[in-house]
Amino acid sequence: MANKTIAFIGTGNMSYAIIGGMIKNGFAPQSIIATNRNAEKLAKAHADFGVLTEQDNLKAVQQADVIVLSVKPQMMAELCQTFVDAGLDISDKLFVSVAAGITVKRLREMLAQDVKLVRCMPNTPSLLGRGVSGLFAADISEEEKAYIEQVFSSTGIAIWLDEESQINDVIAVTGSSPAYFFLFMEAIEEKAVALGFSPEQARALVQQTALGAAEMALSQQDISIAQLRANVTSKGGTTHAAVEHLKANQLPQTVADAMDACIARAQEMEQQI
Ligand SMILES: NC(=O)C1=CN([C@@H]2O[C@H](COP(=O)(O)OP(=O)(O)OC[C@H]3O[C@@H](n4cnc5c(N)ncnc54)[C@H](OP(=O)(O)O)[C@@H]3O)[C@@H](O)[C@H]2O)C=CC1
Ligand SMILES: O=C(O)[C@@H]1CCC=N1
């Protein structure tokens, strides 16, 4: 399947990130079609990555072997209905849905047939080849599985899940979590400005520290993350004062509760969409 054509239907934040990761890791731009109803977004994808672009989703679906459905979940039914109404032969196409909160069963209802399908939960660091994607396969061949793995490994780490319900856990752990880290960074940045650093200095200080912390974890796999934190925390010192304050205010429990809220919302969407 190495020579397959892959079409991204709805080239917004997530498709842009996946395409960027694929290009960075050697996929041929001519094997990738990006669609969007917004011509400006397509022009940017073409300018940045050299991929083919198409405003007509139906043409893209016809030309591609693999179709990545990447519109907002609430828009998915309407999009799929256009394929059904056009009477497209999609029986041999491999579909990949990156949407949160839409099950295989529901996607197949939307497409009006039991298509070959992968549910994928990626995240936006895919753009830099630093992504994580959880994958759940429904009725695909080993060759198709290998192709999908090649695509999503090119954007970072890809793991296959045994149960579809684990997709919702992946949303909480990696799909949504870049936003948790950004929120933490925003909070430090805002306080740095309040302490008198310029906005430019505050941004530079917080991003360098976040990167440094992540790289320390990445490069020292034999040291637990808890130990890395302990290494910064001198007994009776400043970090201890800050960390104890965060713990007293239930930061770990708050994060766990937030992740439960994320999963609950995905489950609720599965009932609504
Ligand atoms: N963003 C993230 O971090 C992650 C997102 N996802 C999933 O990815 C999917 C896309 O999310 P995201 O990229 O953030 O959303 P975006 O809104 O950024 O991207 C979707 C794009 O699709 C376009 N679009 C909508 N309907 C159509 C259509 N019928 N034909 C062509 N283009 C269309 C939208 O245009 P317009 O702007 O005009 O609406 C938009 O540009 C969602 O289902 C989400 O659950 C999964 C993991 C992480
Ligand atoms: O917020 C959302 O619903 C999507 C799914 C994971 C990240 N963004």
From TrEMBL:
It is found in: Cytoplasm. Keywords: Amino-acid biosynthesis, Cytoplasm, NADP, Oxidoreductase, Proline biosynthesis. It catalyses: L-proline + NAD(+) = (S)-1-pyrroline-5-carboxylate + NADH + 2 H(+); L-proline + NADP(+) = (S)-1-pyrroline-5-carboxylate + NADPH + 2 H(+). The keyword Oxidoreductase applies. One of its GO terms (biological process) is L-proline biosynthetic process. NADPH binds at residue 57. InterPro entries: 6-PGluconate_DH-like_C_sf, NAD(P)-bd_dom_sf, P5C_Rdtase_cat_N, P5CR_dimer, Pyrroline-COOH_reductase. NADP(+) binds at residues 9-14. GO terms for cellular component: cytoplasm. Gene3D superfamilies: NAD(P)-binding Rossmann-like Domain, ProC C-terminal domain-like. One of its GO terms (molecular function) is pyrroline-5-carboxylate reductase activity. Residues 5-101 form the Pyrroline-5-carboxylate reductase catalytic N-terminal domain. Its main location: cytoplasm. The keyword Metal-binding does not apply. Residues 164-269 form the Pyrroline-5-carboxylate reductase dimerisation domain. Its EC number is 1.5.1.2. Pathway: Amino-acid biosynthesis; L-proline biosynthesis; L-proline from L-glutamate 5-semialdehyde: step 1/1. Catalyzes the reduction of 1-pyrroline-5-carboxylate (PCA) to L-proline. Belongs to the pyrroline-5-carboxylate reductase family. NCBIfam families: proC. PANTHER family: PYRROLINE-5-CARBOXYLATE REDUCTASE, PYRROLINE-5-CARBOXYLATE REDUCTASE 3. This is Pyrroline-5-carboxylate reductase. It comes from Pseudoalteromonas rubra.
